[in-house]
Every structure is written in structure tokens, then in C-alpha cells.
Task: structure prediction
Amino acid sequence: MDSAESAPEESFSEVAELLRAATPRVWATPAIAGLLVVCFVGSVLLGVEPISPTAGQLFEVGANFGPALVEGQWWRLLTASLLHAGLAHLVFNLWAFWTAGFLTERLFGQAGFLAIYVLSALGASLLSVTVKPLGVSIGASGAIFGVYGALLAFVLSHRGTLPRGFLLKQRSSLFAFLAYNVLYSLVDKQIDLSAHLGGLLTGFIAGWLLRRDLLHPSAGAPRRVAGAAALTVALLVGAWGVRARLVRVPEIRDQLCEDAANRSGNDLARIIAAIDECSRAVKTSKNRAVPRTERAWLRVKQGDVSGAVHELDEILTDSPNHAPARQLRAAILLDGHRVGEAERDCIKLDEAKREDYWPNATCSEVAMARGDVARAVQRASLVLEQRPDYEKALRVRALARQTQRDLAGAIDDLDAVLRLKPSDASALNGRGWLRIARNDFAGGREDVEKSLAVRPESAPALGTRCFALVGLGDLQGARRDCTASLRLSPSDPIQLGMIAFLDGHRDEALRLWKRASEDTPLEAGALEPWIAKASGR
Result:
């Protein structure tokens, strides 16, 4: 009885000694585990949420994504395997990797183990993006499945050469782990089963090709090198095949069109190339209005405004609810001073769902051009609900609020602009002007001097400082600034009014400021206290 019980223990002890002899030191497993932890901490420091990160956050730090691969970002196939969707994801993967990593490393040696891990990560990413080309995927689990696949290959290829009890124990553990994870992948739709299967299959093949004789671990090295090279070549060929499939996915074609348009800038050659890219996307797109709208925008940049309007007219005839095309046409009509036609498009956009498009400030500007400042404020406010840091909408709303004589609200909007662009000369001068109107002469002067530090020869800023200095009692400095402002802009009634005011001609100042208020309603609220001063109130 005693000898029967000790036999398995002896066989396991012999295997352990054999493994230690074949691979005396084990460092790759803890090194990879440490790298995964470092990458997780690094991603958090770069802004990725540590518990429930978004797909966008993960994409920014290297997640796998079909359109990005098509554009040449092939490094994502490997960087994705270093990232995790939260702390729980990392902890589970570390446990699974730690459980199998040490044994697999001793069986294959460090070089073989690292080759298995990297090739499995690559195979996992390739199958994942093939099955879900528009999915953002991350995680070391594909590579870890590859480690288990390699371990399975070793167990199956060494039947009869290693103690039966040892092999049965490893095989049972392997099948239990794999069965549980595959079933769990089927239940939880967030788990990337294709990555797991890709890693498992690649790891199994790599394990079979890189298996070695534990009694003579250095024997067969050329065969193993050739096997690893052959599998690497096969995966690289597979990667090109995957790319060929990805470029045929309609949504990716649409994305390539959008990316080419965004990169085109004002470079005519790039604009023409982007138009060609979008024309290809039109042929395969499930929603042809999407790439056609991008193409229309590119035609505007090319200088073919009539061609752009013609294309947008056709798009909206076929797809009257396509908000991006309507918004672009409204912008073109506004630039062409066809404000009434632009407003008709904006009325349709007012009825559109916000999630159907990414709104900009065009319709707020249309309302301002029509003198409907209340609607301009309303439209800009709706845009800012969706895009709180959208600078142009903040500026338009600031102007509309100033026209409404809501100076405090206008200052709030310019505060937001200056949080985005602290040295923006126009916003600094605008806020300074409004602060002066609210009797904050010191604050107004501070703002306008910052503005003049950026643009020393700015007539509006010199004029603003003139008013600030009057409020602060520095009449000589005020006269100097108003005179300098009038040298740059000789017919400005606001500065002419201040010179008249300083000369004691209050009736002339009153006439000029009232005229400025009537001609430019935007300035009426800011001039109101000065009109009161000139009137003797």
C-alpha cells in the first residue's frame, strides 16, 4: 500500500527535477506579468478609467481596431494584448497566466515560451479583427489561451514519454480551464471568443512546432527555429489576407473616406486623393449619403462650391433626413450670404435628433445673421449640451448674449473659451470690454493688456484699454490709447465718441455712441453705461 501511494509522488518528483534541469531559471513568466501590470498602470496614467474604461480610451492607448489596421497601424495587433478593460480583467488574466506560465516556460524554455506568447497574441488579434472588424478589442487573454494551447500540444505530443499520471493531471486541468472559458465566452457577449480561439489555435500549433526533448533540451533547435519562422510567415501572410478583407467592409471604407478627408487639410493633392477614396467608398457603402457628404465637403475645399451644393442637393433628395449633409449645405449657403435658404435647412436640423449627427455652430451663426439672437442662444446652448468645450459655439453664444445685454452670461462663455485658449487675444479683449461695461475697470484693463501682449497693434484692444483707463481715472493714458486706436481705424464711432467725451463735448459723444448702438446692436449693452454718463445720468 505504501509503495503504491509513493509511486505517483516519485514520478511527479522526477518530472519536476527533469523540468528544472531542462530550464534551470524561470524569468519570462514574471517578466511578462510585470509588463502587463506596468502597461495597466501606464494606461491609467494616460487617462484610461481603471474600472470601466471606454472603447475610445482603450483605442487611444493601442487597442485593436479594424480601420486603424487598414491605415497601417499594425502595431495594434501586439499592443492590444498588453491592455486590459479594467482591474478585474487584469487580475483574472494574471491568475490564469501565472497558473500555466511557469510550467509552460520550463517545458519550452524561455525562447520557445516567448515565441509562443508573442505568436499567440498575434494570432488572437488577427482572428478577432477578422470576426469583428469594427470592434475595439484588448486583453492578454488571447496570448494566455495560446500558452494553454501550447501546454496542451506538449501533453498530447509526449504521451508515452512522460509519466501517465503527470500527463493525465495536466490534461484534466487544461480541458477544465478551456471548457469553462469557452462556455463563459458564449454566455458573456463582451468576451472576445474569437481572440481566445485564435490564441488557442496559434498556441497549439506553436507548441507542436516548438516541442523539445526534456532529456536533451538543446537537440532539434534548427527544427524549432524553422517551425517558429514558418508560423511567423504564415501569420504575416494571414495579416495581409485580413487587410484585404477589412478594406472590403463597407463601414471601414466609410471610415477611410472620413480619415482621408480629415487629413487632407488645404493640400490640393491630398484633397483630390481623399475625393478618390470617398468615391470608392460610395460604391460599397450601406449608407451612400455618408461618404457623399464627405466628398461634398472636399469639393468645397477644392473650390468647387457649385459641385458641392449640387451633390448635397442630390443627397438630400434621396435622404432628406441626413443631417450632416443638411448642416454642410446650410454652412455653404451662409458663406454665400443666402441666409434665408440656410435658415430653411436649419429649421429642419432643429427637428433632427442630436444623436443623428455631430452638430456645429452653423445654425447659431445663421440665426445671428438673421438678427434672431434668442434662437442663436438656444441653438448654441443645444450644441454645447452635446459638446461642452466646442469653442465656436461658445463664441457665438457669447456674441448673442452680449447682443441680448446679458453681459454676465457672455462673460461666462468667454471664460470657457479662455480655459481652452488662455492666450486668445480676441476672447481676452472681448471679456475685457464686457468687464468694463460692468464697472470692473481693473479686470478689464488686465484682460486687454494680455490681449495687447499678443497683438500690440490691435485697434479694438487699444480702444478697450482707453475705456478702462477712463474708468480708472487715467485720462492722459486713455487719450493716448484712443488716438492710437483711431490711427488704425479712423472712422470708429465708439473711439471718436470717447475722444469727444474727453474733450468735454458730451452731446457729440452721446450722438456717436447712440449711432454705434443702433448700427451695431452687439455693442448696445456695453455702451449703455457710457451713454448714461454722456447724458449726465
Observations:
- The chain has 27 helices and no strands.
